[in-house]
Structures are given as C-alpha cells and as structure tokens.
Amino acid sequence: MEEIRMENCTVSSLYTLSETIAAEVFEGVTYPWEVLPKISDAILKIGAGLDPERFEKRGENVWIAKSAKVAPTAYINGPAIIDEDAEIRHCAFIRGNAIVGKGAVVGNSTELKNVILFNKVQVPHYNYVGDSILGFKAHMGAGSITSNVKSDKTLVVVKDGSLRCETGLKKFGAMLGDCVEVGCGSVLNPGTVVGPHTNIYPLSSVREVVHANSIYKKRGEIAEKY
C-alpha cells in the first residue's frame, strides 16, 4: 500500500532552510523528524568546517561563534554549535546534540537536548526543548516545554486528522514551523507538529498536527487566521 504524503508536515512546508547553518542535514529528507537521529553527526561535520576566524572550539566538539554571548554560568556539552550573535543566558543547560542558530536566545534555566534551533529562535525562560526542531523566529513562552517521550514508552506516531505516520522514534518532541508562537505554560506532547505562523494559546496541551496560519485555543477549537 502506497504511503500517503502528509503535506502539512514536510520540511518544505515548515521551514526556511536558508535560516539555519544545518541546512545540509535536511537534504533528501521529506519529514523533519527524520533528521533527529542525524543531528550529532551533522554537528561534527559542520563544526569541522567552520571558519576559525569566526568560531572558537571550546572543549570537545563545542563550537561557539566569537560574536555569541555566553553567560559564565551556562553549561554547554558537545556536540554543539552556537552560531553568530546567539545569546546563552544564565544557567542555561545545553546537554548536547544542539545547534543554536544566529541571533537565537537560550534563556535562564532552559534545557536543550538533541535539537536544531533555526536563526532567531527564542526559548528564553524555563523551557525544556528535547528531540525537536524549531523554525526561524519560533518563540516559546515562559515555562512552555516539549514532552519528548510518551507515557507508555511506545513509538511516536504523527497524526493529522485521519492521516498517520509511523516515525519509528521513541523520542520525538515537537516540530515548530517558522514564526510559531507558543503561549506560556504550554506542553507540546510527543509528535506535535505546528505549521508556520501559528499561535498557541497559553496553558495549552497540544498534540497531533496544527496547520499553518492558525490560532490554537484548545483541542477541537482551532481558528484560521485572516
């Protein structure tokens, strides 16, 4: 039986690839979650080719742009790339396998693990972002998190109405398209995909696919932007 393509979840429908240093890892990929197991190797490959005039290698497999601002209390474990003009604030915890884009903000007590943050992403206050990809200018409000493992530990399935896609992944947080706004205190459940220019109301529990240019109020109540 031929697989039905989930058009709202493709890389091309969610992301502007010119807005990440990691564009090459998306080559030949249909859905962005296919990239999650490749992030570590991609960082090592990209890092090895970075201009030493612009990037400094600190510790094992950690490349930090000389123009980036990194608080002395932040912790960065490799492999990781912190791109130009990014800001890593007080007590940020980057556990590894993380790409932080140009001008992005990783805030106080925010934790990252196995992620790609496109340019100008903001995760500025008490966020957890794991096994996720956040598109250009995506913003997560204070206390909003990605939940990256199902409570029953089964493999994550992406659902868009009657369409289903078996990901084969046990750990999968959220795929946020360009310019997504996530309200404070929200939880993005495993397998969540949010289309570009969509707003998520504060204190939401989001699962499945939310289409582009929407306002998510609660499950079953999603308005289209005009």
Commentary on this structure:
This protein has a single domain (7-224), classed as 3 Solenoid (UDP N-Acetylglucosamine Acyltransferase, domain 1), CATH 2.160.10. The longest helix is centred in the N-terminal third of the chain and has 10 residues, at 39-48. The radius of gyration is 17 Å and the shape is globular. The strands form five sheets. Strands 1, 2, 4, 5, 7, 8, 10, 12, 17, 20 and 23 form an eleven-stranded mixed sheet that branches. Helix content is 6%, strand content 35%. It has helices at 11-14, 39-48, and strands spanning 55-57, 62-65, 69-70, 75-76, 80-82, 87-88, 93-94, 98-100, 105-108, 111-117, 122-125, 128-134, 139-140, 145-146, 157-160, 163-166, 174-176, 181-182, 187-188, 192-194, 199-200, 205-206, 209-210, 214-218, 221-224.
Average pLDDT taken over every residue: 96
Sheet-strand content, in percent, reads 35-45%
| CATH-scheme architecture | 3 Solenoid
Task: Give a quick account of the main beta sheet: strands, pairing sense, barrel closure.
Answer: 11 strands, mixed
Question: What's the CATH first level?
Answer: Mainly Beta
> Spans of 5+ residues with little confidence (pLDDT < 50)?
none
What is the helical fraction, as a range of percent?
under 10%
Compute the number of helices.
Answer: 2
Q: CA-to-CA gap between the ends?
A: 38 Å
Whole-number tally of structural domains: 1
- Rg, Å, rounded: 17 Å
Count of β-strands: 25
Q: What's the CATH topology label?
A: UDP N-Acetylglucosamine Acyltransferase, domain 1
The CATH homologous superfamily is named Hexapeptide repeat proteins
Shape: globular
Order of secondary-structure elements: HHEEEEEEEEEEEEEEEEEEEEEEEEE
